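Entry 12.
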Amino acid sequence: MANSLGKRYECETCGTIVLCAKATPAAGTVHCCSKEMKIQTPKQLPSSD
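Predicted 3D structure (tokens):
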């Protein structure tokens, strides 16, 4: 899986968060603590009602 531009990746071990500022055309992954980092899920904003 290639890195996705604008996506945030989070380390499940230490909690480090990385923002991808440049996409890689080849298959590359972000690693931290010797493990592949997972894409961080977006948090829902509160309703403005």
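Annotation: The longest strand covers residues 8-10. The CA atoms of residues 9 and 38 lie 5 Å apart.
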